[in-house]
Give the backbone structure.
Amino acid sequence: MSAIAVEDKVEELLACLDKDARQIEESLAQLNQLRTLVIKRDDAALGELLENIQAQSDRHSRQQQERQSVRKDLANALGCDLERMTLSALQERLPEGRREQVRQMKEKLKRLVAELRKEYTSTVLLLSECSRLNNMLLRSIFNLARAGEVSYNANGVVRRQTDTAFVNLKL
């Protein structure tokens, strides 16, 4: 492959990576919106958001395939093993101007991925806490926490404590 063709593939890869960066930014916004809607308990908007996220999964898969295809073409053009065709390896093989563009894109993606990890962790923590609180609430309403508590009266008769539940499960 000629130097011009390699240059075109590098340009194509940078365009793919730019799309990836925009998708990560979109995911960051969706995670923030998800946490906001959970806190506000806006079920309708939450349902819409989750549908949008699901619909975007196809677009993400296509983007990933496109990036892999360009990466494979670059690896072949540069005589490099596909597994070793990383942005760092590509950077070393490019002229200074392109090297700087790849470096900047790599740094941008690293920053966005680190931010995405942080936001994802925050979202997981919020949802875990919501789940814990819901379980605690259900236990108190249905007295599930006391279902195993047994007491004995003065005559030795077993008495289960069921009279303190918000909802009595006995029929």
In short: The two ends are 79 Å apart (CA to CA). The chain has a mean pLDDT of 85. The first strand starts at residue 150 and ends at 152.
